[in-house]
Amino acid sequence: MIKAKKSLGQNFLVDTNILQTIVNSININNKTILEIGPGTGNLTNFILNKNPKEVFVIEKDDELATNLRNKFTNKLNIINDDVLNVDESSLFKEKVIVFGNLPYNISTEILSKWIVNLKDDFWFEALILMFQKEVADRIVANFDSSNYGRLSIFANWKLNINKIIDIKPSSFRPIPKIDSSLLFFTPKKNFYGIKNAKNLEKITRIFFNNRRKMLKKPYNQIFNGNLKVLEKLKINLNLRPQNLSSEIYYKLTEEYEKLTS
Ligand code: SAM
Predict the structure, then answer these.
(1) What's the mean per-residue pLDDT of the chain?
(2) Whether residue 88 is found in the same domain as residue 44
(3) Is 10 in the pocket of ligand 1 (CB under 6 A)?
């Protein structure tokens, strides 16, 4: 009997309707699949039943990795490692489909790693990932809404994002205290060519430092009172950070990079 480890965010998905919804969200027949955190293999089983070409899994827990090896013998390529240490882009010869009921404590870190490292020659075709609902709502939020912020802007930089379904705590064992949501991501064909993701992080951090204040102070802090960018992008400094679309933040970052390079 496997005892769930809280430190590794182990809440196993046991609701077969939800497991079916996840694997039905995209056609995986004859595709290469990567599953992050397969745990006891509940989702893995549903994936294998859909005739993928090959399945890779990354599982940090040694006990679970051994258990998966015994359970699925030759059907899986098991990488017993921390997903944050793996360079996924170098593992595959063709584009893969990624599934993950991610550990909540590192879910945004995993997503950020993939976004930062994502080049034009994407290593994945789609990501189907589970997040804590609160986090998912921030990822999909549009401007002019209270959930909109740094995470929405960062995630939308290179990815198209849709919510598939919200999932109740009772679908997991042990039962978590929070609701979850399943998000579907595909890479954007043309994303803004920001040179360094740290600049987008810096600019959004300064703007969203105080959501209630008008844009004037953070704008001047970043651009030293240079009004040219303001005029070019037609930004009204009497607005608040959540009133600017994500495109404006990408353009502001590009302008910042031009001025500081
Ligand atoms: N996919 C399974 C399911 O739906 O039943 C398990 C999901 S559980 C929320 C998260 C899984 O990720 C666990 O199996 C846990 O051991 C694994 N995990 C946690 N941290 C990890 C990391 N840094 N790298 C890889 N796997 C990790």
Answers:
(1) 96
(2) yes
(3) yes
Say if ligand 1 is within 6 A of residue 242 CB.
no
Q: Pairing relation of β-strands 96-101 and 124-132?
A: parallel
Quote the ligand 1 centre to 176 CA distance (angstroms). 14
CA of 217 to the centre of ligand 1 (A): 42
Residues 217 and 95 in one domain: no
Residue burial 127-153, b: 16+ Cβ < 10 Å; e: rest: bbbbbbbebbbbbbbebeeebbbbbbb
Residue having the nearest C-alpha atom to atom 23 of ligand 1: 82
Residues 54 and 120 in one domain: yes
- The CA distance from 83 to 97, in Å, is 16
**pLDDT tens figures, 52-97:** 999 999 999 999 999 999 999 899 999 999 999 999 988 998 999 9
Residue 203: CATH number of its domain: 1.10.8.100
Whether residues 94 and 214 fall in one domain: no
Residue 57: CB within 6 Å of ligand 1? Answer: no
pTM: 0.96
Residue nearest to atom 11 of ligand 1 (CA): 37
CATH number at residue 70: 3.40.50.150
